[in-house]
Amino acid sequence: MVVKKKKTLTRLAQGRPPLATPSRSMTRKASRTLINKHHQLEKTRIRAIRIGDKETEAKITAELESLGGLDHYQKASLQGQSIDRGGDTSKVLMEWLPLDELKKQTQPLQMLEVGALSTRNACSTSKIFNVEHIDLNSQEPGIQQQDFMERPLPENGKGPFDIISLSLVLNFVPDALGRGAMLLRTLSFLRADTDTTITTEPLFPCLFVVLPRSCVDNSRYFTDDKFDELMAALCYTRVRSKKTQKLAYSLWRRVAGVVKEGLTFPKQEVNPGKTRNNFVMTLKGPKT
Ligand SMILES: C[S@@+](CC[C@H](N)C(=O)[O-])C[C@H]1O[C@@H](n2cnc3c(N)ncnc32)[C@H](O)[C@@H]1O
């Protein structure tokens, strides 16, 4: 028997979702090139904004537009989601949940899917969830065009959702502080009552996160331990975890506790190495 040697992922781009087989609209290579280029340009644009380099910012924005902007990027990502390539990440979440118990609920659970490309993924069609889909750029009438970071906070301070999905969204956010801020913000929309007994094993309220595997396995600044540490500071505990060759899936239950005012989580090198990437999520002060 020939044993296939597992490839070690060295670049963040290698961890992105499986891409399409050649199609009339976009070949596998073309969609991969587009996704990588988009991520690269976004990073450069954010750097330019940070240092006030208006000229570079305008140049990169124009370049992003010439590539077809977010819309084209999403179409490339959608190819990675298509069912025949097993790309729907929400299938893993469905495998993790006690579906029989959840089907007995009189009301469907409330789910917020941030960064939704389709309304037909496994969670959305399961009937277990009432899913609200949002994205920066809506690809379907059932997806509300909304920036999660600008979404109005619940009026009574009580989050309505049992579960939030951030599948391949945090790595889309171009800067470390923005990613941390997004994680922190999930708390405002999740139910705060952590002792609800929806399932025999306490799983809700929770956050489903999918990242390219190289974000936790090959970063100079971020590892699974760091992720646990950051999430613990945000009152989340890991209840499920799975890795495929390219992706790292995790489910985090919100636990009782108060997130410290002005909590910081700095960038620290934990895995030096020339071939590693710079992915990290950080928190800085009260405004993050
Ligand atoms: C790589 S796609 C992932 C899509 C899908 N969730 C998946 O797992 O394949 C990332 C998506 O996140 C969306 N996104 C990023 N930041 C967002 C934000 N702040 N609010 C809403 N959507 C966001 C982008 O517009 C993009 O469509």
The CATH architecture of the largest domain would be 3-Layer(aba) Sandwich
Given helix and strand content, the structural type is: alpha/beta
- Pattern of helices and strands: HHHHHEHEEEHEHHEE
Bound molecules: S-adenosylmethionine
Helix content: 25-40%
Gyration radius from CA atoms, angstroms: 19 Å
Gross morphology: globular
Could you please say which CATH topology of the largest domain applies here?
A: Rossmann fold
CATH homologous superfamily grouping of the largest domain: Vaccinia Virus protein VP39
What is the CATH top level name of the largest domain? Alpha Beta
> What does the largest sheet look like?
7 strands, mixed
Distance between the termini: 53 Å
Strand-residue fraction?
Answer: 15-25%
> What is the tally of helical segments?
9
The counted number of beta strands is 7
Overall number of structural domains: 2
The largest sheet has its strands arranged as 3-2-1-4-5-7-6
